[in-house]
Design brief:
The complex is a heterodimer of chains A (about 325) and B (about 350).
Chain A lengths: L1 H6 L8 H11 L4 E4 L5 E5 L9 E6 L4 E7 L5 E6 L11 E4 L4 E5 L9 H4 L9 E3 L5 H7 L5 E4 L4 E3 L3 E4 L2 H15 L6 E6 L7 H10 L3 E9 L19 E3 L10 H14 L3 E2 L10 H4 L7 E10 L6 E4 H20 L1
Parallel strand pairs in A: 3-12, 3-13, 13-16, 14-15
Antiparallel strand pairs in A: 1-2, 2-12, 4-5, 4-9, 5-8, 6-7, 6-9, 7-8, 10-11, 11-17, 14-16, 16-17
Helix pairs in contact in A: 5-9, 7-9
Chain B lengths: L2 H10 L8 H11 L6 E4 L2 E6 L8 E7 L4 E7 L5 E6 L11 E5 L3 E6 L22 E3 L4 H7 L5 E4 L4 E3 L3 E4 L2 H17 L7 E7 L7 H10 L3 E9 L17 E5 L5 H14 L3 E5 L8 H4 L8 E9 L6 E4 H17 L3
Parallel strand pairs in B: 3-12, 3-13, 13-16, 14-15
Antiparallel strand pairs in B: 1-2, 2-12, 4-5, 4-9, 5-8, 6-7, 6-9, 7-8, 10-11, 11-17, 14-16, 16-17
Helix pairs in contact in B: 1-4, 4-8, 6-8
The chains are: A alpha+beta (about 325), B alpha+beta (about 350).
Amino acid sequence: MLRALCTLNGISGRENSVREYIISQIKNYCSYETDRMGNLICFKKGQKTPSEKVMVAAHMDEVGMMVTYIGGDGSLSVTSVGGVDPRVAAGRQVTVGEKNIPGVLGSRAIHNLSAEERKKAPSFEGLKVDIGAMSKEEAEEAVSLGDPVYFLPEFESLGDSLVMGKALDDRAGCAIMIKLIKSELLYDTVFVFTVQEEIGTRGAAAAAYSVNPDIAFVLETTTAADIPSASGAERVCEVGKGAVVSYMDRGAIYDKKLYDLAFALGTQLDIPVQTKTMVAGGNDARAIHVSRGGVRTLAISAPCRYLHSPCCVLSKEDVKCCETLLRELLTAVHEN
Amino acid sequence: MELKKILTELSSAKGVSGAEDEAAKLAFSYIKKYTDDCEIKNGNVIASFGERKDGVPHILLDAHIDQIGLIVTYITDDGFLQVGSCGGIDRRLLLAQKVLIHGKEAVAGVICSIPPHLAKSGDEEKVPEFSEIYIDIGMSKAQAEEIISLGDKITFCGEAKELLGNKITGVALDDRAGVTALLYTAELLSGIKTPCSYTILFSTQEEIGERGAQIAAYEINPDIAVAVDVSFAMSAGEEPEKCGIMGKGGMIGISPSLSFELSEKLKDVAAECNIPYQLEIMGGLTSTNADRFSVTRAGVPSVTLSIPLRYMHTPVEIVDISDVEAVGRLLAEWLKREGI
């Protein structure tokens, strides 16, 4: 399922195909509605109706690019949608628009670069998508301004337990929510597949307002930098070391009681749980925890290397840890 | 002959400089359909056509079979790989690139990068040094060492794909496009007795200094040599005076290091046969195998014929198939006329 989810295309604002796929998966297991922004809100009946309403959120959108201009030479200018480092975009194959027109993000031949230019990273201003068109007219037959541009879904296993692909952020969270919706839950829970997280957690703001929860859990992927060039606190969190529960990031200070509960459950049930060694990143919690009069919020994330690149890497075991931990929390929050 | 199909297959065959086996064997399997007189010698694919006769030139047509790539130099305690370059690698494009490591089996990997969330101010401007490049293969050191040895070669990924208007994108089109053009020449001349004899060479180690061509040319001892390689095609950001244009035919080289007569001859044949061509003017050496051919033994008059290619040495090179075809045809038409 993770492969299927990561193969779908959906930059912020264009989450349609992801939403359709998710609906096909969950429609027999809950009631659901799509709100005006495109958020998919699912009401999962449990055995009991709790006194406090719990919402779980994961975002459907992924980072990518959008066509902003078609040059006279048929090249396409693009802007990033969400935080894309041009260094991980240059020199890749892409697809453009709903028709999946193949193209590449070309880069000048190294032979023709001055010594100075060779040391300078590419920028989006200089990056053009080449679809093979030799004129503006030829390009316009295939693409339009505003067309989304996607990295190729090169979903693949890496070693025994890791997977690599685009959009693992946050289709991994979506996959966990689908599994939970398909399973039996003790308490009623609202699951929200949100839109537009990558451009400022906008879908979650609207969804949290409508759902009006008391408690929220955000399922995410978060920045692991456990690579040889980073040491100590710079590694942030580590792939293969379990679910990441952080005390604070750039978007939210998490609810201390929920934070403690997560670690207590981890110890008690032998679920690996780690925290982050840096205050960095942010997710839908940013909007949810300050919705209406405030929502007690916790984010549970799978540690993920190379986030926002075409080749994100995470561990299937860590995703499982997140799922197990959340399942336990969905009961424990009502009983502690 | 389905040129797109052949180029696509050649693009996916691996052949980093010094480890060209797979690509060379594939090219050999194609060329041997046209002559029995062919072999792979010291890595070079050498296919000869016709009988050598005094007073009639023997012509060498060459395209290099190797591609740029990386080479494993170290495995860290955490199982990450450190690498060096084989050929001119653009370090600006390495971060988060998917790669294939060709150990006892092919292993997928990704080049480590730090996400924008964790970047320090100024990081986004930086281009990593080779000493800062690590490849993540999702294995422990012990697991890695069972499959991967120091010296194993690494290729970039990117299945060849069709773009608009007869174009192909993929890896190693430099110079598998040239190999494809020469296979087309062989196809066009199949069953035709040319006045001259000729050898088609798919040479190794061009990207690290034209070494395969050097030893093969000595062996073949031709009277005339043509290096069929790729050259810069105009694209966004490039300078027009350094570039050809995709779709306008092969680029006939003109340079002090090349034979001016040969350049003229190719122009004449192209004009006579209505084959599109353009010129590539170089002020000195050509950075192709022609630089070796011209000083082979006592010197061999040489010329370059280049296929315009965008984004050279990136994993997303582009060629126009009509240019590959034009180069193949031009050479075939010339061989039909040379030595009369």
